[in-house]
Amino acid sequence: MKIGLVGRSGIVAFLAVGFVSTPLELLAQFTPAPTASALSIPEAHWLKPEALLHLQQIKGEEKPLILQVGSHMLFAQAHIPGSEYIGPGSQPAGIQQLQNRVSALSRKKLIVLYCGCCPLNRCPNLGPAFAKLSEMGFTNVKVLYLADNFGTDWADKGYPVERGY
Amino acid sequence: MAIPSVIRTALRTLSRSFTVKLLLCLCVGVSAAQSPVATTSLLHKDAPQFVRTDLENRKLDLHAYRGKVILLDFWATWCAACQLEIPRFVAWQSQFGPRGLQIIGISMDDDPALARKLYKKMKLNYPVAMGDEKLGQLYGGVLGLPLTFLIDSQGKVQAQFRGETDLKLIEDQFKPLLRP
Fold first, then answer.
1. Is residue B150 within 8 angstroms of chain A, CB to CB?
2. How far apart are CA A96 and CA A87, in angstroms?
3. Considering only CB atoms, which chain B residues are within 8 Å of A149?
């Protein structure tokens, strides 16, 4: 069967669309985490929720400075008691706030960052915030491991929360 | 008449135990302020009503959509998973709107300007209003995104989708509720 030029072009176009659109759809569903993502944080710096609760309960030990580096709206609904709201780590203003808050602290101070905005591998806030503290010379930074979000991995597990700003 | 010592002792014991109980009550009361608070499930309950102004300055009254099958989507511009879902929501609104589907977006951004920018950029074809702590708490606590509620035509929450969800799962849930 002879296929004319137009027919061949049509077949090529059809195949091209088919080959390109499928990977694009897969890409949309499985887009890798953004640069400076939470996944760039070394494993040794992750802290499980139970471990943070334990740290908070140890008598006589200096309590960690707990900083929320995500959404204010989420913080206002519920946050870890004693934690402070800093601002989104993904925003320059949030990073500046973080810098201002910690600049006078000992570089050995135990600081715990958390967010809980969304699935950890998608979080845009923790990576930049952690990077900033590392850049400033802080050597005792932990990041709270909330795999899905603050609701699922903290509040729904019955861990204590506070409301309000 | 002098109170017998036995009774005096009994009264002292009772008053102490009362004090202890009172102290216990106070402790419980204090701890309640920091008590664990899980997100509340709205499954099979009436969807909480609200009236807002959407990003196009139109009144957005949830009750006005009674009779439609609603996907109420809490999202934010900083939520990458939300942005992956939105194009599908736009497609669903076009495809299933005639069969009674209505998607409503609630942006949990702190800055409405960011939400408005993305609303235009992604050409959302459904109403979007700004959320806040009050609306979040009304919906059981929006403590992570994305969060989507499927509300049937009678106004009851039939499903809640917390976190990144297989969109096929959401579609399989709402399609049977639509008009043929």
1. no
2. 9
3. 143-145, 162-163
